[in-house]
Amino acid sequence: MLALHTAPPDSVSSGFHPERPTMVLLNPRAAGGQAAALAQPVREWLAAHAPGVALVESDSIERSRATLQCMPRSSRVVLIGGDGTLHHMLPVLLTHRLGLGVVPLGGGNDTARALGVAGMAWPQALELALRGPTRRMDVGELITPRLRVPFFSSLAAGFDAAVAMRALSGPRWLDGLPRYLWATMAELASLRTHRIRVALDGEPRYDGEALFASVLNTRSYGSGMPAVPGARVGDGKLDLLLAGPFGRVGALTMLPRLLKGTHLPHAKIHTWTFQSMQFESDRELPLAADGEPVEPLRRFEVRVRAAAVRVVSAKLPRPREAPESSLSSQPLSESAQA
To answer: How many Cβ atoms sit within 10 Å of the Cβ of residue 19?
Structure first.
């Protein structure tokens, strides 16, 4: 979770002159409600360093989406919140081709980790979100005949989705990874495997019992667990992490390896990269997209939407991911449009 007052507002440079419509949207319910205390400091910072940029507070998904829909296409929006906030705003970011800057303030922040902004003091993160160059980021999308759910970081299916949902209702005094660990231990009591069939890019890959089968766009999920260290958010692919038929003892002994990122050599752990996945189970599985509940399903498809959204990142893009704008030329200019 990002600290609310780790650096004073005057620790960042001023002289902000936006050239495109820009808005800062704060979810006061993020971080267990702690985000509400950030509203006034952010408002004062904007008045001093980014006059003309509005701060909007909204704890309603519908009102927040409606607010973003009023922004001109190709505007930049800065979201202050966690993975859940980003997830719920993603459909509008895609349809209105909005650029995204992130000030991380939540329990998970796995998308923020992928962008290199997790743990930043909020003035530094806000400065970068407003001024920084953008790069293209892939997103995933869950697809059924009646449902489409885009996601930034992950789509968990099975045991880890059940953990994510349990974590949402966990003790408020636990945050981040400790809450996920608490939820994992609690979920072990009702652990069960599922018979699943998976095809990737049209080729059958797995048919058997599995504890979970989760799709990742980012390297981590579950508040920083390094699930697929080789995942890249701009490679045009997604990663499937599949755990075979673990029992309670096996799952418990695997947890420390997952936390350290040393789980991949295990014989019951499988990973593949793909662009499209067809998934079928013997019964409905719990699902969670970016840690947010999705209705249980037996059959679904997942596809990558390559380079679907423009994001501000503190990390240098890989050679094939050239940045779309440069801070050294114009503070908020973004030459390429979606």
So the answer is: 10
Q: Residue 192 CB: number of other CB atoms within 10 A? A: 10
Whether 95 contacts 71, CB under 8 Å: no
- Would you give per-residue pLDDT tens digits along the chain (338 residues)? 333 333 333 333 333 444 566 999 998 888 777 888 999 999 999 999 999 899 999 989 999 999 999 999 989 999 999 899 999 999 999 999 999 999 998 777 999 999 999 989 999 999 999 999 999 999 999 999 999 999 999 999 988 887 777 776 666 666 666 766 766 777 676 788 899 999 999 999 999 999 999 999 999 987 778 889 999 999 999 999 999 998 888 777 877 777 777 788 888 999 999 999 999 999 999 999 998 999 999 999 999 999 999 999 997 666 555 455 433 323 333 323 32
Helix axes 61-69, 83-95, angle to 10 degrees: 30
The one-letter amino acid at 96: H
Radius of gyration over every alpha carbon of the chain, rounded to an integer in angstroms: 20
Q: Kindly state the helix (H) or strand (E) to which residue 212 belongs, with its residue range.
A: strand 212-216
C-alpha angle 272-273-277 in degrees, rounded to nearest 5: 90
CB 130 within 8 A of CB 258: no
